[in-house]
Amino acid sequence: MDRVASMVEPLLPRLGEDQDAVELVALLKKTDALVRQREAAVDEVARTVDAIKDNHYLRSQIEFELERRRETNRSQLDDLLRQNNELRQRLEDILRRS
């Protein structure tokens, strides 16, 4: 729209005081401004929605990693408990033999 207005605007002096031509240029400029404003708002909405999606994905990844680590830690704890029981049993056996 702005491009069309910039092409028509130089013709205004040739058209004299034609109010329709002046009004046309003004309307084209206003329309262009409104379209740009609308596009900016749509872009902002799209960026915000994309950010929400990214945050949701990252949260899911973090939660998955925390759960995986919890399972790994639980497995390590179980191994340590088992080893501790084995060592306790060995100590009791040693003390009985002494």
Summarize the structure.
With 98 residues, this protein is mainly α. It contains 3 helices and no strands.
Layout of secondary structure:
Elements: H1 2-8, H2 12-15, H3 19-97
Overall 3D form: rod-shaped
Structural classification: mainly alpha
Mean pLDDT: 85
Largest sheet: none
What are the secondary-structure elements, in order, as H or E? HHH
In the predicted model, the low-confidence regions spanning at least 5 consecutive residues are none
- Rg of Cα set: 37 Å
Number of domain units: 1
Distance between the amino and carboxyl termini: 100 Å
Q: What portion of residues is helical? A: over 70%
Number of helices: 3
Annotation, overall tally of beta strands: 0
Strand percentage, roughly? under 5%
Search tags:
rod-shaped; single chain; mainly alpha; 98 residues
Explain what you see.
The chain is mostly helical. The chain has one domain. Helix content is about 90%, strand content about 0%. Helix 1 runs antiparallel to helix 3 (about 20-95). About 0% of the residues are buried. The mean pLDDT is about 85.
